[in-house]
Amino acid sequence: MRTVPYLGLILLAGLLAYYLRFDNLRLDSSYLLAILSVLLASSITLPATGALREGFRNSLSRRARRIVAGWALVMTAMVAVAAMSKVTATYSRVWFGYWVIFGAVGLVGLQFLEHLWRVRFRRNHGRRRTLLLVGAD
Hints:
By secondary structure, the chain is mainly alpha-helical. The chain has helices spanning about 5-20, 30-50, 60-85, 95-125.
């Protein structure tokens, strides 16, 4: 379930890139297939890189490096598959570049916001103490 916000951000980055490139959101079937393929690959690769693991919550730089590496791996794999299947002429390089940049910045930004929220929660939660008063009147 931790991957859902990240996949949503990847989807939004792809749609934003498409809108900026083509000035509409009527996706061609090839672009829809590309977005769905990246979402599927990301749902496997991002958790496998360890960026979304529970143990790395305190180290923002480690998680950011891992998520950028996972994102780069996914996009490199998509370029390789497109080149091997000879469909690179179908896709706009500008759209792809926007998507890579928006995705990377968005993923790191989402991790930064999550980190800030966890630090704030830890600080506020750490100030509360359970107090037990024992005595008789």
